[in-house]
Prior knowledge:
There is one protein chain. By secondary structure, this protein is α+β, with helices and mostly antiparallel strands. It has two domains: 1-34, no CATH class; 36-98, no CATH class. Helices cover 24% and strands 18% of the residues. It is built from three helices and four strands, in the order ββαβαβα. Strands 1-2 form a two-stranded antiparallel sheet. A two-stranded parallel ribbon has the order 3-4. β3, α2 (56-62) and β4 (67-71) form a beta-alpha-beta unit. The mean pLDDT is 90.
Amino acid sequence: MFEQYLGEQVNPYTKERYILQYHHLNELQAIQIDASLTAPDLIWLLQQTGDEILDYRQAVTYLMECKQIIAPGGNHAFVGFDYYFPQIMRFLALAKTK
């Protein structure tokens, strides 16, 4: 999955350069958790299809038992997050429901 990123990369935030090597991929694979979700009702996926960091389709598949909103476009920062804030507050039981 990450093979396409092998070689020199640049951190988009710090502009630091680094080299992604095969042993890094092996280290990631070694810590991967292949577990099923025990409480999918406690998870809400808010994802945008334009996420430049994560493939939204993988999240949709992995979290298929969870509540989901998949918005077109956007990016990894989730453009328009504030629109969903009242719903998020209700989901987290931090606001009174009407």
